Amino acid sequence: MAEFLTDIKTIRERARQEIEKGPVTDAYGADIERVLSVLNEALATEIVCTLRYKRHYYTASGLYSEPVAAEFLEHAKEEQEHADRLAERICQLGGEPDFNPDTLTSRSHAQYDASAGLVDMIKEDLIAERVAVASYTEIAQWLGEDDPTTRRVFEDLLAQEEEHADDLRGLLERIPKETSAL
After folding, report:
1. Which prosthetic group or cofactor does it need (predicted)?
2. How many structural domains comprise the chain?
3. Residue 114: inside a domain
C-alpha cells in the first residue's frame, strides 16, 4: 500500500487552518489571482459567444436557415452552460464572476458578430470556436498540475468547443456556395 506524502495528522491540522479559503489549500500551486483573471476572461468569452449564437439564431433566414438556426440555438445553450461552469469555478476559488456588460467584449477572447448572411454567420462562429479551442488549449497547458480541477474544466469546455467547430465546418460543407448572400 502506497504511503501518503504527508501524514494524516498534518493534513488534518492544515485543513483546519484558513478554513475560510474553502477548497484552496497549501497544495494549490497556481497563482490564484491570475487564475481568477483567466477564468473571468473565459467567462466573458462564453457570454459573448452565447449572445452571438442567439443573435444568429434569431436572424438566420433563407432556404437553409432552419437546420443552421437549430444548431445556433443548441450552441448558444451549451455556451451558456460553459459560462455557468466558469462562474461556479470562480466562486469556488473565492473570486467573483465578472458579468459587467460594459467590459464583456474587451475581456472576451472571441468577438461579437452581427453578420447578415447565413454563410458569414457560420464562418464567424467557426472562427470564434477556433479562438476558444486555441485559448483553452493554452490555458489547460498553462494550468498543468498547479490547478488540476480548473484544468479539467477547461479540458471539458475544449472538447465541446472542438465539437462545435466540427459541427460548423460540417454546416459550411453542406450549404451550396451560391448561398453566401443568404
Report:
1. heme b
2. 1
3. yes
| pLDDT digit string (tens) for the chain, length 182 residues | 555 567 767 767 777 776 676 666 566 788 999 999 999 999 999 999 999 999 999 999 988 899 999 999 999 999 999 999 999 999 999 999 999 999 999 999 999 998 889 999 999 999 999 999 999 999 999 999 999 999 999 999 999 999 999 999 999 998 876 544 44
Grid cell in block for residue 133: 479551442
In one-letter notation, the amino acid at residue 24 is: V
Place of cell 452552460: 81
What CATH number did the domain enclosing 59 receive?
1.20.1260.10
Q: Does 137 reside within a domain?
A: yes
Judge whether 53 and 124 are in contact, CB under 8 Å. Answer: no
Q: 118 in a domain, yes or no?
A: yes
